[in-house]
Write a structure and sequence with these properties.
By secondary structure, the protein is an alpha+beta fold. Helices cover about 25% and strands about 15% of the residues. It contains three helices and three strands. Strands 2-1-3 form a three-stranded antiparallel β-sheet, covered by helices on one side. It is globular and about 40 Å long.
């Protein structure tokens, strides 16, 4: 592996890495302009970017999909802001902590789960439904 880092015509390659990301409100006339609306994670950045530009989102009914459809309807698309690049095994914990942190600040209002792919720490209260995807 070339460890000299990115340069003209080069890309930095991090094997087996995933990323934590945030979607930010881009509409200048919206009261939440610049605030994090959604926190997520993925192992495929290019695929995830494309997901946020596709009209196929129109078929989904989640708050995030509705928001993306609103943006598409007015010709606005926001790139994901990468918050973390890390090994896949740390992404669940990152997502859970990032969602909790942003919620405490009044943001991440489009996240419908607590994050992560495993049941919440106290799954007995909701039967593990909080993280159902």
């Amino acid at each position: 592996m070339d460890t000299r880092g990115p340069g003209p015509g080069r890309r930095l390659f991090i094997p087996y890495a995933g990323h934590g990301r945030a979607l930010v409100e881009p509409r200048p006339d919206h009261p939440l302009l610049g605030q994090v609306r959604y926190v997520g994670r993925s192992h495929k950045l290019k695929t995830r970017r494309a997901d946020h530009r596709q009209p196929g989102q129109r078929r989904k009914r989640s708050p995030r999909a509705r928001w993306i459809n609103e943006l598409l309807a007015v010709g606005q698309v926001r790139e994901s802001c990468v918050l973390l690049i890390a090994a896949p095994e740390v992404l669940d914990d990152f997502e859970i902590r990032a969602i909790a942190t942003y919620r405490k600040r009044g943001a991440a209002d489009l996240n419908t789960t607590n994050g992560g792919e495993r049941p919440p720490l106290d799954a007995s209260r909701d039967g593990g439904k909080a993280n159902a995807r």
